[in-house]
Amino acid sequence: MTFIFLIFGLAIAGFQTIILKEIWQVNLRPKWILFLITPLLISITDYFCDDQLTAFVFFGAIASIFFIAVTGIIFQNSTNFDEESNSFKHKKSYSEIVQDYNQPFYLNPAWGIAYQLYVVAMIGIYIFVPNEVYESDLNYKLIEQDLALQ
Description:
Layout: H1 2-22, H2 33-48, H3 51-79, H4 94-100, H5 109-128, H6 136-149
């Protein structure tokens, strides 16, 4: 299992290197340092600790990919004013602004809200409605009882 973790550790190191170079624009010296650190961390944990802690370190490395990427994207989008600084010199009229943000009907945010409410309702039904209701034999018996009472 350690060999598989090490192979995937190299892939994780590759993704971490790409994210640090492209999103964070960090110049790594030497460039192979993450390819040494991530598998070495996994193998040291496997040698000195049990398999559960090795799996925890492995999944922590996977989670670090998403953490580094998401924080980098948020940070880059919040501080990237180089390209947009020239756009503030030209003041747009209200009609130009509305024209820039005109969305098609199917991208309306109300559809997203409606879909989220639908998902929450389905989850609520699944959680709070007992499983016996879903059984077809019980439903037929209830229908027969209702017809018999009428």
